[in-house]
Design a protein that fits this description.
This protein has three helices and ten strands, in the order H-E-E-H-E-E-E-E-E-H-E-E-E. With about 170 residues, it is of the alpha+beta class. The protein is elongated and about 80 Å long.
Length: about 170
């Protein structure tokens, strides 16, 4: 009887570890559901919107300008941020705020990306902390799940003029 109970317990633990590993790999390499908070991506993503993030793009270096990404915060490694990619390594980007009279530009260094929120007046982004290492990217957001009336692929940046093609 004890042998039978131990056998069932170890089988249960074995299945738990196996399914835990499968779940970890799925969330780490395929993607997952993310609840976004904060006003920095308005109007594209509102506070409490639920989105789907896929993680394969970052592993295959398929992140492009205009993509919305989930990134480990450069200021607080325990939290993630949601921002739009404005520039990739070697790109010339506008580093000043939209309200600045004199515009300043810089080049994104190798192995980095330039990130900005769609709500330029209320976003802490690369204009504050500089270029972000590519390795901090966790995934690319491509589908809004909630609210249902806004379900679908994410729209283009309302700040398309900030993308420079020099």
């Amino acid at each position: 009887m004890l042998r039978n109970a131990l056998g069932k317990t170890f089988r249960f633990l074995g299945y738990t570890v196996q399914y835990g590993c499968i779940a970890h790999c799925a969330f780490e390499y395929l993607g997952g559901i993310v609840v976004c908070s904060g006003p920095s991506m308005e109007p594209t993503i509102q506070n409490s919107d639920i989105v789907f993030s896929e993680n394969l793009s970052r592993h295959f270096y398929c992140i492009r300008k205009g993509d919305i990404v989930i990134v480990k915060s450069p200021n607080d490694p325990k939290s993630n941020i949601c921002k739009r990619v404005i520039g990739l390594e070697g790109d010339k980007v506008c580093t000043s705020n939209p309200s600045d009279f004199l515009k300043s530009h810089s080049y994104v260094p190798k192995g980095h990306v330039w990130l900005e929120g769609d709500n330029l007046r209320n976003s802490t982004d690369s204009r504050c902390y500089g270029p972000v290492p590519y390795g901090l990217i966790r995934g690319r957001i491509w589908l809004k799940i909630w609210p249902l009336n806004d379900f679908g692929f994410l729209r283009a940046s309302p700040n398309g003029h900030r993308f420079l093609d020099d």
